[in-house]
Amino acid sequence: MKVKKVITKRQLDCIIAKYRIRCGPITIRSDGYLDVNGNVKICDTDLYKLPLKFANVYGNFLCHSNKLTTLKGCPKYVAGDFNCYNNVNLKTLKHGPEEVDGDYSCHENGLVTLKGAPREIKGNFNAFLNQLTSLVGAPEKIGKNCYVHHNNLTSLDGPQHIDGSFYVSANALIDLKGCPGFIGDILSFDNDVRIDLGNENCIVKTVVIQMQETKVAVLERCIPEIVISNQKYLPTVLRYAKYLNLYDIEGGFNEYNFAEILSDIKDGLR
Known about the structure:
Layout: H1 9-18, E1 22-23, E2 26-28, E3 34-36, E4 40-41, E5 54-57, E6 61-62, E7 77-78, E8 82-83, E9 99-100, E10 104-105, E11 120-121, E12 125-126, E13 141-142, E14 146-147, E15 161-162, E16 166-167, E17 182-190, E18 203-210, H2 225-228, H3 234-239, H4 255-266
Parallel strand pairs: 3-5, 4-6, 5-7, 6-8, 7-9, 8-10, 10-12, 11-13, 12-14, 13-15, 14-16, 15-17, 16-17, 17-18
Antiparallel strand pairs: 1-4, 2-3
């Protein structure tokens, strides 16, 4: 039977000094993992992997601005914020925390997948400026805002409930299919994305259409002016989207049906 090697206090002190690690009081567990009663900061190094193995961190866990290629060694539980941004060779969130009570920040990396993220985040989820084509693996429930702008997303399948805002501009989206069923505040997307949720509805407080310079190749996909000028009514439109038939099978916009629902909204439909 293989016996796990437990780090000694002296070894721990040497590693902390070598990499200028800042952390609260540490408990070395019998399995060799570390519990920290406070924050952990391992940042601005040339590390490709973490030099220690954590279990529970009862504060923030910061490992941003390194050269990490893996999240091995990260704690399973973080009571505060988890932040691993600016590790440009980090492709996956595998081995990352399973539970985070604050914000989860993994932006400005090289992520190609969100698999490995917790199923629920109580704070913000920051995953912008990566190389994501899909939100599969993203937290299903997000307690605050979700920032996934500036990726290569072609679908919004992933999150199901966002209590704050959902920012998805600067992606490769054609439509809003896969959009969460509930967004507590703002849904923000570009003006070349169809307001087509497929056979689903979305409860959202505010819709903000970002006016981008559109390439000629996708000009025909631009949201019609009647939608742009009436975007304040879009939350009600999206609430009933599955019943409206706003787009035909080829993606053509049905302006008559939109005008009909617009009239009903102005007459008091909520």
